[in-house]
Structure formats: C-alpha cells, structure tokens
C-alpha cells in the first residue's frame, strides 16, 4: 500500500505550473511528508487538454449494517490495480476519472516498525497512477492505484504505487485500453533508505 508520500517541492510545483501556463491557488497544498486527507498536485484529463488541480487524498465512504443499524465511515486511500476495474467503489471512476499524482518519494515500513524512504534513482518527480471521485458537494478526492511489489521490494512490503513514465501519461489519462494498467510493472531504478528515528 501507500500510506504516506513526499510531495514535490514548492519550487517544482511552480516550475510545472509555469511550464503549462496554468495558475493555481496552492495555499492548501501540503509540502513535504504527505498524509491521507492532505492536499497534493494532481493531473486530470480535460476536455481539450489535461489540467492540473490541487486535490485532497482519500475517498470518504460509509457502510450501514442493517442488522445493527450502525454506520461505519472510512477513508479509502489506495485502489488495487488487480480489482480496480471490477470493484463497485472504483470501476466507474477508473473508466472516467483517472489522474496522476505528483510526488518525489514515498514511505514504507518494514515489519510495521522501520521507516524507509523509497525513491527512483534518476527521477526527481514520481507520477503515481490514480483515480478520483467527485462527492455530493462537487469536490474531488483521489486515491493512489497500487500494484503487487516487485520481487526486490518484497523485503519491505507486498505492495507499492503504480508509477508511470512520461510517455505513458497521456495514454493513462485518455486511453481506452484500461486493461494494461491492471498488470504490475517493474522499476529497476527503485531504491530505499532507512529513515533515522528522531528522539526527543
């Protein structure tokens, strides 16, 4: 899974916006370590051209147990690529609302204890595959699509984000063949390093 990631820097964000000639209110943007419910830079498919947005991480859901009458609330942050085309929660949005989440790295915990920073050796900016849902107030929220871990990465975790190369972005956002995105990819340049614990 992906439960925390590192955002791109403010300078990188401004460079991206200047490069496409787009202006965004970035006052809600979370820089540095990013948690679920924080805001991040997301690229979505536009009618005439793809566009950049600041969007919150996590889709809010509710389930009611009709036997007990209790309602359970949850915040979904990931979608498994293996089931994203069939799962009721995601399948319509995976067809119509795919997106790219910009990051510089992500975190994973080995044995739920040791925290590692995970990055790609020759890429300053990572592009996670994602999808978003628009709620009843017309506000969009995104989740990150995850895949099975590569054999090398299983020493840390059994899942990792589905990451896209620059030449895959347009096809992911606008292509009709969604089946290709349900298969795991390999990342030869994936690296990780232990994050030192901070003690007070």
Automatic annotation (TrEMBL):
<dbReference type="InterPro" id="IPR036590">
    <property type="entry name" value="SRAP-like"/>
</dbReference>
<comment type="similarity">
    <text>Belongs to the SOS response-associated peptidase family.</text>
</comment>
<keyword id="KW-0378">Hydrolase</keyword>
<dbReference type="InterPro" id="IPR003738">
    <property type="entry name" value="SRAP"/>
</dbReference>
<protein>
    <recommendedName>
        <fullName>Abasic site processing protein</fullName>
        <ecNumber>3.4.-.-</ecNumber>
    </recommendedName>
</protein>
<keyword id="KW-0456">Lyase</keyword>
<keyword id="KW-0190">Covalent protein-DNA linkage</keyword>
<keyword id="KW-0227">DNA damage</keyword>
<keyword id="KW-0645">Protease</keyword>
<dbReference type="Pfam" id="PF02586">
    <property type="entry name" value="SRAP"/>
</dbReference>
<keyword id="KW-0238">DNA-binding</keyword>
